[in-house]
Every structure is written in structure tokens, then in C-alpha cells.
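Collaborator request, handled under Task 6.
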Amino acid sequence: MTITKPGEADIALQSPTEPPSNLPDGSEGIWPARRRRIIDWLVIETRGERFIDNIFVELCNRLVEAGVPVARATLHFRIHHPQWLGARVLWRKGLSEAELDTYAYGVEDSIEYLNSPLREFNEGAEEVRGHLDDPPASGKAYPLYDELRAEGLTDYLIWPLYHTLGKRHAITFASDRPGGFGPDDLIFLKDILPALALVSEIRLKNRFARTLLETYVGPHASEQILAGATTRGSGVTVGAAILICDLRDFTKLSDLWPRDDVIELLNGYFDAMSEPIERHGGEILKFMGDGLLAIFPLSNPCACSQLLGAIDEAQAALAVLNEENLRKGHDPLGYGIGVHVGDVMYGNIGSRRRLDFTVIGPAVNIASRLETLTKELKRPVLLSKAFVEKAGCAGQLENLGSYVLRGLDEPVDVFAFSGRR
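C-alpha cells returned to the collaborator:
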């Protein structure tokens, strides 16, 4: 293994004066042109490809066709994601698609990472190289090297892939040729890295923008925004089942509990509510302090049934969370859920420069009033007659009668949901 620190001698980026010895007879004169064609393809012809993994597979196949003995290659990216620290794109010779893996936060404390060449690289090495056909005793004995030897690989190296402002990612190449990569192969590979860095950064930034929107406004709203819904008032009228949920006595809890305990409580509560909603096809549009607003678009004919399924699962998850709170000596969490159905305006509202992508309309107001009514009736889930008729679920619910809701002239028939389990 060779570790080259920044500032030490590096491989030149000029084209070699002699072609690699492993090319077929008569091809020596066109070898630099092959490299040029790969770079041109990267810069110009990949503009229509959205995903870096597809580009990487094609790149590796083109390298093999050009005579570079690459048998395995990976890209390692640090990504901006609420759940994942990084992602890996893995290509092996003969694969038509890359393998994609994500890594959770905390992976850098794992034994696997601590005893890996990637750790050497992340500590500042400009190159980490393992000559795998050397005796295992020569150089650093990483477990990964044993795995690569077992695959018949003979050489392995890691290089940086630099993005804007020095953002440093990693690329690896492995060879199965006896003796591994030659000097000309290394020059060939080094020459394509600047172009690959540009191409990969564009895709990574595009993915980051999409992830950012999905994280803060949800997947459906993010698609609308990316498609051009970025002006105030832009939006559409849609039919939807609306769910509004609120945590009870949160102000009291936040005054009495330590800050970190309050954050942990809120995260557990939102996990219990959010995961069933998303799993059943709902879209969470916003978190409002200790509450949330979600819709289930009626373009899905099962939307109302799926909303009830989400509430059912959420109640079970909240029961488990409350058992944990009791074990910790805390009071169980109370909550209120209001459900209605109707047409809503789905789009942008706000000031000229600061927008919120949400839903508004009388149907949202009724769902909010029903959630408030749960405090008075001491029932955690209340649904309107309009929703119950749309869902066809009156037989599963308890009719509580009619109630006048603030801001409405006519009373609303209200039903209580106790779960379907």
C-alpha cells in the first residue's frame, strides 16, 4: 500500500508519450484520442442523463473498451440528507447497473470504517493504494484487501474527487490484471477526474436541491416546485382528505422538561405520527410547532381508507411511545386529530420573497376546528360526516351528534374513531 500525503510528488496529468503496452497491435496511435473521446463524452454527451450512477457505469465500460484494466470502481459522496451521512456507487465489470448504498450517521465510529483504507483517505491522504497481488504481509493489512483478493483483484487505489470550494469526495479503482495498473493507466484515469468532478457535482447538487425540498415540504410539493411552481399564487385546486394533529399540553411540558428531553419527545411523537402517514400515501405539508398538517389526495381512490389506516397505526405507535414515557417517569402524551374532506387550494402563499407551499381553504379550517373540538369532547380523533360518507366507514365509528364549529353557520355532524385493531 502507498499513501501519498498532500504536497508530495503526484502523477503528472500530461498525456504519455508512449501508449500502454496492453493495447492491440495497430491501436497505439489512437490511444490518446480514446481518452479525449471519453472526456468529451463526459462533458458534452451526458447532459441528458440525470443520475450519476448511470453515467458512472457507462464511464467504467468505456474505460474498459479503451484498454484500461478497471474491474471494479466506486464513488463515495458525502451527502446532505437528514438520515444519511454518505452514499456509495459501486460498479463491477459485467454489471449493467451500479449498486447503490447509503451510510447512516455514526458509521465513522464503526469497526468496519476504522479499519478501512477509506479512513486513511479521509484523514488527508491524496492517494491510498494497495498492491493486492503482493504477499498479504506487505503493506497495511485491511480486511477489504482480503475481500478484493478473493474476487481476483490485484490493485486498488483511492483518489480524491474535488468539487467546488475544496469539497472532497472519493473515487476508487481496482484492477484484475496481473501487476495491476501501469503508469500509463494511472495517467489515463487521472486525466478524466476533472471532467468527472464537474459532471458528478452537477448531479449531486441537483439531488441535494431535491432532497432539501423533500425534507422541508415533502415529495409531492417538491415535484411541483421543481416543475416551476415558484411564484406567489401558483397552485391548483385538489380534492383531499385533510388530517390535522396537535400534541396536548406541550407548553406545560416544554416549561417543565429539560430542552433535550422536549426535543426527544417531539421527535418521537412526530415519528409515531409521520411514518404511518407517509407509508399510507399521505403527504405531510408542514410541522406547526407541536402539530402537523397532512393531506391524502382524492386522486387516489383509496385515500380515505388509507388515512384511517395511518391513524390506526399512529395510535398504536403512540401507545408504545407512552409506555416508554411511563417507564421514564413521564406522563403519557395526549393528542388530538381532526379529519375532514373537501377541495383545497394547493400551492404557494406568502410575501413577494418568502413563500409557503401549503393547502388553504374552508376544508382545512373545518379539520382544524375538529382538532380543537377533541379537547372539549375528550376524544382523540374526530371526523366530519363528509369524510365518513366519502370513506363509507360509518359502521366503524361512533356518531357523537352535531356541533357548531367556530366560523361556520351550520353545525357539523361529528364522529369519533377509536381504532380498527
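The cover message to the collaborator said: "The chain has a mean pLDDT of 85. The chain has twelve helices and 15 strands. Please let us know whether this matches your experimental observations."
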